[in-house]
Amino acid sequence: MEKSYEELVAEAKSETEQADVEAVHEALLGGEDITIVDVREPDEYEEEHIPQAKLIPRGMLEDQAPEQLPDRGARIVTHCGAGGRGSLAAKSLMDMGYTNVANLKGGLNAWREEGYETE
Q1: Residue ranges of the chain whose pLDDT lies below 70
Q2: pTM reported for the whole predicted model
Q3: What is the count of structural domains for the chain?
């Protein structure tokens, strides 16, 4: 059965943790060890990104994750602009054996709407 992009995203969102922007921001402020993975394209990242976010474009995730994210038990929060690519990325990481993965609900758009810092 063929699935549309929207169907794939909906499935990924239902199968992954969708972390609230406020909770992630508070955890970062509190010094929790969280790796934020920005799965957008390099030009999007250069334009604006969450401070200390690690850029691993969605199209390169499966190839770069083992090297860039060696601890499969570490807390990882993926994000994109609105939540679609981030959810797909979180699901892919889980499929690769990462055990503590979430997607930032609403992505960078939600982060920005809360007035949180970007670079």
Answers
A1: none
A2: 0.94
A3: 1
